[in-house]
Amino acid sequence: KAGVTQTPRYLIKTRGQQVTLSCSPISGHRSVSWYQQTPGQGLQFLFEYFSETQRNKGNFPGRFSGRQFSNSRSEMNVSTLELGDSALYLCASSLAPGEVGYTFGSGTRLTVV
Amino acid sequence: GQQLNQSPQSMFIQEGEDVSMNCTSSSIFNTWLWYKQDPGEGPVLLIALYKAGELTSNGRLTAQFGITRKDSFLNISASIPSDVGIYFCAGGQYNNNDMRFGAGTRLTVKP
Questions:
Q1: What is the mean pLDDT of residues B35-59?
Q2: Mean pLDDT of A8-30
Q3: Cβ-defined contact of A90 to B43 (cutoff 8 Å)
């Protein structure tokens, strides 16, 4: 079965712009989580969605938001981009919350210039 | 930020050698997981541990869930070049997917 698909793979944006990243989970998976990965901070949890509802949120400013659609696909949005937002954004899916050990996508590499 | 201390940060070993890395935490976790990440890709789950004291193997990989539930280790036996990558530990709770990750151990295997 197809894995977790993230688009786009690479993105370059200018400070102040906004960006939307997309994640399609494994077919049948209804829980989607987002992580930010940077060399300095490692993997940090952004948020988790299940049944179109945000269940959990990490310690990120309100510029970071997300949503989930009825088909379980998820998007995350970052507004007013800052240089420090440059990172690999990873999406992971699982059948349901609490099923740890989920599957990651290949990520979207965002560069803010 | 991260709550897990993973060590070592990096390892340079000869092909055929065994490798050991570990993670410790100030918090108790219900699950411990080990992931491997190749360049340009997302982490791939290697082993999941669900019970204190549990010892689980996946081929040449063996991981253990510490009895205090605050630590875990991963061993790789007879390393091969394709073992190169970054290995992450992660601690999780049963009812949410807010896992905490270690900073990673970068493994280099010299042929």
A1: 93
A2: 96
A3: yes
